[in-house]
Structure formats: C-alpha cells, structure tokens
Design a protein that fits this description.
Rossmann fold, 2 domains, single chain, globular, two-stranded antiparallel sheet, 49% helix, 9 strands, 5-stranded parallel β-sheet, alpha/beta
Length: 311
C-alpha cells in the first residue's frame, strides 16, 4: 500500500516527480509552509519589524503567500498590508478583487485597492484599445508589468512599507530566466532574483518567498487548505511571449521533472558573474514628470505616455 513518507497515512495527495516523495494532505501543507519559511530565513528576505506590502490579486499564488506571511504577522514578527491593483480588465478583475478582499478580511489584514484609473487616468482595457491601431504595438503584459511595478513602488512609499512581497513561483522565475536569455536581455538577467538589490531609498526592496515552489504545488496547497481563490486566467496573458516560453518549459518538465530547479540553480550560480561583467552602474535620479526613480529623464511608464502623446 502506498502511504505518506512522513506519517504513514495511506491517503496521499501528491507524489513529487522531482523527488519521488509521497505526502498526505496535512504533511504536504506543513512541509510546504516549512519550505517557504526556511527560504525566507535562508535568503534573509524578512527581518523582525518589517512592514510588508503584499501584492494580493486574489489568485492562488498571492493567496497562498498571504496565508503563510500571516503566520509571521500573528507571531508579531512582521506587520502586513495587502494591496490589490485593479488594472481595469472588464469581466475579469472584479471577481479577483472581491476574493482578495474576503481573504484579507478573514485574516484581519489591512487591505487597500488601487487602480490604474486613479494613477494613470485610464484602464488597461483603455490602454490596449488606444494602442491597437499602432504599428508594432506592445502586448498587454508589457504595459501591465511596467504600470504595476510603478504603482507598487509608489504605494509602498505612501504606506511606509519596508518590503514588497509578490507571489512569483518557480514556474514564473524559470520563465523569466529563459525568456530574457532568448531575447538577449542581459541587463534584465542581472536583476532577476529572490530579492531585489537597490541602494536608492526611493525603491522599496522586493522579495519572492515562493520562488522555489512549483505552480502545481501552489494550486494543490490552496485546494488542500480550502482557501478562497480566483482561478480564472487573465484574458490578455495568452498573447505574450512569456506564455509561449511557459508552455515550452511545461512540455520539457513532463519528461524532465527537475528541469525548472536545475535552471534556477544554474542561473543563481551564474548571476554573480553576469552582474560583475554586465551590470551597468547608473545614477538613479527622479522622473521629471512623475517623480518616480529612474536612470533616464523619464521613467518607463511616463515614456509610454509620451509615446502616446498623452500628458
């Protein structure tokens, strides 16, 4: 009879392909929590007294991260605030906001909803509609990523947060590594990691506590914990290069279950060399339009607006 490798329970819910380990529901939940908390200590992601701004979309990754970081909040190790960004994607984002709000309320975590509309004067739907007529238009993920990072950094300063925590998982990170390598974007590769590095006080340090947890295990965790989660996928995501890379990696993982871990480990070994050889030290000032930190005259978000002829 197949049973849990930790407690002997015959009701197993997972057999990990990469290790062969078999776990029941309770042991899987405990081992996953232990792994995330161990990584937080290993990579020095959080310190006692940190005020953490958690990006809470209502999706499985951010809800799982909220569940685990709340355990540190309850032990008075950190303070925690959840922020949900409403990009303005009609028919999609509304449910995610409601689920995010329910999760935060249930745990007694302060929750703030901010919108593209209030900061930029238009929704993501407006942005895509505006640029569909342009030749060589960028896909939605490019705009969304730039604007979300801008908002998170601005809100973190407004709230006095010391860290920004995001739910990026193992799949996300390996996709970023492969995608930027294929595009030849070495500068982006030097910035990928479990914890951002910055000497500029206007940038809030970003951390990824779920970086070594596969997406499938995150999905299983939220189901096993019976967490309230928004499982719908973003309608714009399918058109991105990231989605193509993600599908390629998933196909490889079917026959090579450790491929994402080996990609991550290999990259982490190479990163110090990449930083030493290719990292460009730049003087970071402030955007002359919005006041956000940037190495250029305008930050990326304001550059987009200038390209559109907007104020």
């Amino acid at each position: 009879m197949i049973s849990c490798d930790k407690c002997g329970n015959p009701n197993i819910i997972i057999k990990k392909k990469q290790s062969g380990q078999k776990l029941c529901k309770d042991c899987f939940i405990k081992s996953t929590q232990k792994k995330v908390l161990k990584d937080i200590r290993k990579y020095d992601l959080l310190k006692k007294g940190d005020y953490v701004l958690l990006g809470l979309s209502g999706g499985k990754d951010s809800v799982m991260l909220l569940d685990i970081l709340n355990s540190l909040k309850k032990r008075n190790i950190i303070d925690l605030m959840a922020v949900t960004i409403d990009e303005g994607i009609c028919g999609y984002r509304e449910e995610g906001i409601e689920i995010a709000a329910r999760n935060a309320k249930k745990l007694g975590v302060e929750h703030r909803v901010v919108t593209f509309k209030e900061y930029f004067g238009m929704t993501l739907d407006d942005i895509i509609s505006k640029n569909n007529v342009k030749e060589g238009r960028r896909n939605a993920c490019t705009y969304c990523g730039v604007f979300r990072r801008w908002i998170f950094n601005r809100v973190a300063r407004e709230e006095g947060a010391t860290k920004i925590a995001t739910g990026h998982n193992l799949d996300d990170e390996t996709q970023s590594i492969v995608m930027n390598y294929l595009e030849g974007n070495i500068q982006n590769l030097t910035r990928i990691g479990v914890k951002s590095e910055t000497r500029n006080s206007r940038f809030t340090i970003k951390i990824k506590p779920l970086r070594e947890i596969p997406e499938k295990e995150i999905a299983l965790y939220v189901v096993a914990r019976e967490l309230d989660v928004h499982f719908a996928g973003c309608p714009y995501a399918g058109e991105s290069f990231r989605a193509e890379v993600g599908n390629f990696i998933k196909q490889l993982s079917n026959e090579h279950p450790t491929i994402m871990y080996s990609t991550l480990r290999g990259f982490d070994k190479m990163k110090p060399v990449l930083k030493r050889e290719f990292s460009q030290e730049s003087i970071v000032g402030v955007c002359e339009n919005c006041g956000e930190p940037t190495a250029a005259r305008l930050c990326k978000a304001c550059t987009f607006f200038k390209d559109w002829g907007a104020e």
